[in-house]
Design brief:
The chain is of the alpha/beta class. It is 55% helix and 9% strand. It has a four-stranded parallel β-sheet. Helix 4 (98-110) packs parallel to helix 10 (243-257). It is globular and about 55 Å long. The chain starts with a helix and ends with a helix.
Length: 261
């Protein structure tokens, strides 16, 4: 009888220990549940992938990295991204000019409310622009500046060294006030059978490459400089391209600014 009572007491103690441990584990598990809940909630509240945003950024695949980042930022902030086309009267004017053709295609691809394209053109040399018209640009240079740095106007008027210094000055002035602006350089239109002007353009290209500035060599899309066909691509006074030349220039830039798979 005494042995049986001892056995029952021992069994009771074991049961109490097991039950207590079970209750404690349940209490711990229950108190831990709220700790993990926020992590699940964060995953569910994360923004899903935006296919339209990805599509727009893919169209800008050829752009400089800094420009793509600014475009992405503009998309996130739901603000207009601005491209400024800057240069001489070589840019032309009117609906058949390459800036207008480029603007139409960019707005068609990206959306009219997303990208704004404006043109600043002047019938002057780079030195005259720096001394007289820089204020126009500095008011609102835009996110991306496609700069034709008066190379043709400077030919025979401004030393190549001074022309390149003027380019650096323009970029430095803009960057000091608008550090997020990005420059892309390009030459003016080519000329038929010219001798010294192509050397200035080659200097511009080397300057761009040496300073890691994006350079759009649209001359590769035109006829050879000594090809008589070139005359068909130029206005009679050579001051700007003809309608045919504007189309060639525009198509080259459209292929760059609107990347197609």
């Amino acid at each position: 009888m005494k042995a049986l009572l001892t056995f029952l007491l021992a069994a009771c103690c074991v049961f109490i220990l097991i039950a207590g441990n079970f209750h404690w584990q349940k209490k711990i598990t229950g108190s831990a549940a709220p700790e993990s809940a926020p992590a699940v909630e964060n995953i569910e509240s994360a923004d899903p992938a935006n296919p339209e945003k990805e599509r727009l950024l893919s169209l800008a695949a050829n752009w400089p990295e800094s420009s793509r980042k600014q475009l992405e930022k503009a998309l996130d902030e739901q603000r207009v991204y601005t491209i400024t086309i800057l240069g001489s009267k070589s840019l032309g004017e009117g609906s058949d000019s390459w800036p207008e053709l480029l603007k139409t295609e960019i707005q068609s691809a990206f959306g009219q409310d997303l990208i704004e394209t404006k043109t600043l053109s002047y019938d002057m040399t780079s030195s005259q622009f720096v001394n007289q018209k820089m204020g126009d640009l500095l008011k609102n240079p835009g996110d991306l500046i496609l700069f034709e740095p008066f190379t043709l106007n400077d030919n025979g008027e401004v030393e190549t060294k001074d022309s390149l210094e003027n380019i650096a000055f323009v970029m430095d002035e803009v960057k000091s006030k608008h550090p997020d602006s990005t420059f892309i350089l390009q030459p003016s239109h080519p000329l038929y059978n010219s001798i010294y002007y192509p050397k200035d353009v080659e200097e511009l290209k080397e300057y761009s490459e040496g300073n890691s500035i994006p350079y759009l060599d649209h001359w590769t899309a035109w006829p050879e400089l000594d090809d008589p066909e070139m005359k068909e691509f130029l206005a009679r006074d050579n001051s700007q391209p003809s309608k045919k030349g504007h189309r060639v220039w525009a198509d080259f830039l459209i292929d760059y600014f609107i990347h197609q798979e």
